[in-house]
Design a protein that fits this description.
The complex is a heterodimer of chains A (288) and B (596).
Chain A: H1 16-22, H2 26-42, H3 48-70, H4 76-89, E1 90-91, H5 96-111, E2 113-114, E3 117-118, H6 122-133, E4 139-140, H7 149-165, H8 169-190, H9 194-198, H10 204-213, H11 224-243, H12 249-276
Antiparallel strand pairs in A: 1-4, 2-3
Helix pairs in contact in A: 2-4, 2-7, 3-4, 3-5, 4-5, 4-6, 5-6, 6-12, 8-11, 11-12
Chain B: H1 5-37, H2 42-49, E1 51-55, H3 79-82, E2 89-92, E3 101-104, E4 114-118, E5 124-126, H4 128-131, E6 142-150, E7 159-166, E8 169-173, E9 179-181, H5 183-186, E10 192-200, E11 209-216, E12 244-249, E13 255-257, H6 259-262, E14 269-276, E15 285-291, E16 296-300, E17 305-307, H7 309-312, E18 325-327, E19 336-339, E20 343-344, E21 348-349, E22 353-357, E23 365-367, H8 369-372, E24 380-386, E25 395-400, H9 412-419, H10 423-426, E26 447-451, E27 457-459, H11 461-464, E28 472-478, E29 487-492, E30 498-504, E31 508-516, E32 528-533, E33 536-541, E34 550-551, E35 556-562, E36 566-572, E37 578-582, E38 589-593
Parallel strand pairs in B: 2-34, 31-38
Antiparallel strand pairs in B: 1-30, 2-3, 3-4, 4-5, 6-7, 7-8, 7-10, 8-9, 10-11, 11-12, 12-13, 14-15, 15-16, 16-17, 18-19, 19-22, 20-21, 22-23, 24-25, 25-26, 26-27, 28-29, 29-30, 31-35, 32-33, 32-36, 36-37
The chains are: A mainly alpha (288), B alpha+beta (596).
Amino acid sequence: MTPPPAITRPAAQQALWKRLLDSRFAPPVFITLILLIGNLSFGILESYQKTLLAIVTAMVTEMALGKFFLGKWPHPASAYITGISVGILLRSPAFWPYALCAAISITSKYALRVKGRHICNPSNFGICAMLFLASESVAGLSIQWGNNLASLIVIWTLGALILWRAKRFQITATYLVSFFLLALLRAHITGDPWQSEISPITGPEYQLFMFFMITDPKTTLKSWKGQCLVAAAIAVVEMLLRLDQSVYAPLYALFLVGPPALLIEMWLNVRRKNRTAPLPQLRPEMAQ
Amino acid sequence: MKRGPLAHFLLWVFFLGMLATPVVLRRISSQHAATQAGEATCQSALARYGFCLTEVSQQAGIHFVHQSPVLDQKLAGIMPEIASMGASVSIVDFDRDGWPDIYATNSRTGSLNHLYRNNHDGTFTDVAAQMGIADVNQAGTGVSMGAVWGDYDNDGYEDLFLIKWGKPMLFHNDHGRGFTDVTAQAGLPAWINANTATWLDYDGDGKLDLFVGGYYPEDVNLWHLANTRMMPNSFEYANNGGRKYLFHNLGNGRFEEVSEKAGITSRRWALGCAAADLQGTGYPDLFVANDYGVSELYLNDHGHFHDAGQETGVGFAPKSGMDAAFGDIFNQGKYAIYVSNISEEGVLIQGNNLWVPQQGKTLHYENLARDLGVELGGWSFGAQFGDLNNDGTLDLYLENGYISASKTRSYWYDFSKVAGGNSSIISDADHWPAFDGRSLSGYQQKKVWINDGAGKFIDVAQAVGATDRYDGRSIALADLWNTGALDAVVANQGGPLLIYKNTVAPGNDWIEFDLEGTSSNRSAIGAQVTLYWNGAEQIQPVTGGEGFASENDRRLHFGLGKDPHIDKAVIRWPSGRMQTLDHLAANQLVHVKEPA
């Protein structure tokens, strides 16, 4: 995951809290707050060291690959969020999966590029890879954050506020509405209680998924409509995976939908440019 | 990007190498496991690990198959999950003939419990009906979940407390000739939905008291539910379980409930408990393993408890505690505490806990389960420490497996779907999808971890003969045939009671202690023996119930390794009296009566 871009209004004219909300540091600060509150209140981390290992590995890998391939030191916020997401979302009694997952996540940004743009959400790719390839050693987030409404409301409100300022709230809102509607459809198809179908979205895994993963600016579409369409498509694929009883359906859905959506957008952009300019000079753009 | 094709090629090599790493590690691990499994004969196990286990229940005349409860039909969809406990085993020498007997509980309304009297010839005879403790699961009284034995009136015979979802029952042992139901006189509550209990003399008055940990709230009748909102309100932080009870023995056959006065007020969902003197104060401390939440460690301040779970480190990360067992795994004269939890490949990896006391002035524990290799045990239940190969270090036997039904369809998806949700959803059984014959962590391989004495435990279950795949719940260790080897008795949910007879390779010696209190409680529960030999030291406690719904043989068993020279055994009695035994020879059972 990478943070939203900074808002361009003159910083001096904004209140401090607004500048904080708008800055590139807002998502890292927000996710750190979630981590700290969750751990101090509910002990969501059995080990600080494992999370720290994931963060350090992600940042070191990012610095090394960024400097080597892009010729400059990358902003650390993106790697920090990737590392901390791995630290929260991955569960393993061993240390090595945290380091490996963080390194895979960051490296995917450099290896899986099309026309200079990375096409996979880094932490989503890394975690899915670990769940696929190392299922005997890792699991997804299994711990809860109290199961009470208060903590849910606080995190949703803060997350929504940050996304609103970053103009990405529509992605989460579309996904949320789609999830609820499709949950009812799933309940109708499977005959399971509808409460059991909406239950997952009230858990912590989804709070990270909705507010950080599917809104990642580097791996989401540019257009407002496209973003909403992809969010709905993720919910649809997730539903299909859920009907197949996939435990990590949302992560896999993003893994399956995100990259093709980006490729389609890039192809459409090229086609559009071709129409307007008969002989376009394509130049690779640097995403970082 | 700025770099050329070679750099990108190297990047891809690096990337693919990382993706391949877990696959390579798994292959190496499976090859190692295959090497071990390939030598699964008793002879090879004896040669390699120093012992082997042979399942002999049929030869021993034990044909008991546990029956699970059938509860209110409002729970029909998730009945396998709700009715997933009740198989238990406890060891007692109820007739004082010097040979351990076996008590096994049943859990269907109308089913019978069994008391297997040891015939001294390798066989057992069920005498429960004759003794009056078989027909204890009658309609309207609930069903058995476990049993713990303790001589509450100090008459020399072990009495029986029956843990139930329903009416708890206390039976007085009439000198080994029968049992009398004394529940009414004892003043016990009308209904408790409990799965764990232990006898302890918490105030050191020489009379055994009783701790009982509730699971479902005591106002819930699982056969006649008022509504379906009886599930935990969280799978990590539940606080709507049954209350905990501390029954103070008044000495006249009556008990007074004093839990609140003694500082125990939690409503977490208790599944395992055990008591031993962890602080060295002479008073027993109480460890409670809770399902759906953190463990509790009640430190005993001379008869008053305070929960020191967080300050000692054992009560912070919430898991699904099922079992509590003590063992001096490093031969340092200190108890480590093993707590079993849930691990399922690719879905949920809580990991079991091995709480090892750290050096320092205050009591603090660190979880070394991962480092020592005893973390992953599937959906774990009962576990017990014991020196299975008599090499002088404590090994660990773990039971596991939750619900074995369909071999192809799993409930894990539905379980994970609901369990992480909001409390209003998960606390109502109506919101849970039906099982429909699916398994949940079923058919699991058991774990028999042998202690290499150098800081590692190695699973040898398949190699030494612990090969069953039943839904294991309760395990008790005992030298059933007085051979100097610890045998294992395993109670399986909806499955047979298994007797694993232990054959130990010649060469390793042993010694056992049978303690009898005088000014202390006669069962000597709370006493501890520290044995010094060959420069080593090992401490063991006498407990009144330990593990998951189980109780080991009251006699303490020490493996000594080869050619031992026993320096001394130091006994600290619950009364505080210290006793040192010198000139002890190996390979004997030592009877010790507390000096007047």
